[in-house]
Write a structure and sequence with these properties.
This protein is α/β, with parallel strands linked by helices. It has helices at about 5-10, 15-30, 40-45, 65-70, 90-100, 115-120, 130-135, 135-145, 150-170, 170-180, and strands at about 55, 75-80, 105-110, 185-190, 195-200. It is built from ten helices and five strands, in the order H-H-H-E-H-E-H-E-H-H-H-H-H-E-E.
Amino acid sequence: MKTQTKQIQETLTPQIAHNILVEGNKRFVQNLKAQRDLKQQVLETSNGQFPFAVILSCIDSRVPAELVFDQGIGDVFSVRVAGNVINEDVLGSIEYGCKVAGSKIVVVLGHTKCGAVTAACNHVELGNITTLLEKIQPAVKKVNKEVTTESIEETAIVNVQLSIERIRVESPILAEMEKNGEIEIVGASYDVNSGEVQFL
């Protein structure tokens, strides 16, 4: 697999970027990793980076974005925070990835069996975790069901959808880029049992 260059990045459309991620996850699920010389990629990206995607995902150790989409060094910006929630720092990171560095797709990636979503559903309060979990509460309130395995998974999906809504409302830069067809903003969910990503 080639290292992302400015020339490659400029030829990509949001749809092609989306397809690269879909194909990468298919390889991951089948345990057929693309052949990469990571050391060579380190050298080739040392003077600059041209990632094609920004992936906002949870800090969950089972969901490393580069691996689950079978991407190499210099391919994606990985923004990680418990519960894949939105705040100013996350938005600034995504804006940098797209507006400054030229990425073509923003993926908000939730996952099954999410500890942050489970904690939010159970109204856990603990130090700074309390403030973080408050950002998941709108999804909890929207689902508004007794806490079960099913309702937690439903809340995780709604949380992804609400994060996307917040991106569009709170980042005029990204909303305009999406409207102009420069980027795609899409939600997805990773299944920790199968390794499969379902785009929403």
